Amino acid sequence: MKKRIEDLTVTQNRRLGEGFFVINASSSQGLPDILPGQFVQVLVTDSPATFLRRPLSVHDVDMSTGTISLLVQIAGAGTERLSRLNPGEKINIIYPLGNSFTLPLKGERVLLVGGGCGMAPLLYLGRKIREAGIEPAFALGFRNRSRILDHDELTKLGEVFLATEDGSEGYRGFVTDLPQFRDKDWDRVYCCGPEPMMKAVAAACLRRGIFCEVSLENLMACGIGVCLCCIVPTTSGNLCSCTDGPVFNIRDLKWQISG
User: Would residue 183 be called left, alpha or beta, if left means φ above 0 and alpha means ψ between -120 and 50 degrees?
Assistant: First the structure.
């Protein structure tokens, strides 16, 4: 798939609270084909401490308006600068990068699992699954009620189950404790979030023989497989999560085999 380096125009920068925000940016050329699970590399300007582009999952895509959405958590100087972008400003991105999730087959029961900012790629994935004639379900885990991210768009696509560690909203515990995850027979599970959560989801899916793909949130400097800082051990050897991933089948990951 051909890559672009392009200046997009910010159309909206919406705060979600607790250090999260969503940037909407439009392309004057129209967007290229973007697959669910792919990511972009964002250039951060006017931030002297930020030398490298920031990898961000594609949160949503509107081909009719040429708009791409990015869900971002403030984690340092670079993302803090992005949080202050105003409508009309330009944002330079390289995209689309990486591979994508494997879409389910008609009639399969599908669960999308996310934790914190890991829910970023799930909206677009859920939208593409719904367009394929399958109603997905979502299992989302957060630390507490104040950390719950905006999930109204997800409820338009399928049922949403919430878990919080302190029980302040939804089920008390982790996403793997949710009865809807623990007790229902799913054909496919797609997951993105903190590595401990993904490992727990992957282990449960392996035990139950459920197809599962995870999107790894490794550090990525170049995004094109040159710097080798995002290497992930797999059953096929060491692979770059930016080019061979970020989406991997759990059966291919050595970190799951090794526990």
Answer: alpha
> What's the CA gap between 122 and 190, in Å, rounded?
8
CATH architecture of the region 4-97? Beta Barrel (2.40)
Q: Which CATH code fits 110-217?
A: 3.40.50.80
Type of residue at 154: L
What does the pLDDT look like over 13-58, one tens digit per residue?
999 877 899 999 999 999 999 999 999 999 988 777 777 888 999 9
Hey, where are the domains in the chain?
4-97, 110-217
pLDDT in tens, 180-189: 999 889 999 9
DSSP state of 30: -
Question: CB atoms < 10 A from the CB of 222, how many?
Answer: 19
Q: Where are the beta strands (DSSP E) in 30-170?
A: 39-42, 54-62, 67-73, 90-97, 110-115, 137-142, 160-164
| Residues 41, 77: Cα–Cα separation, whole Å | 16
Q: Which pLDDT value is given to residue 235?
A: 92
For the chain, which ranges sit under pLDDT 50? 258-259
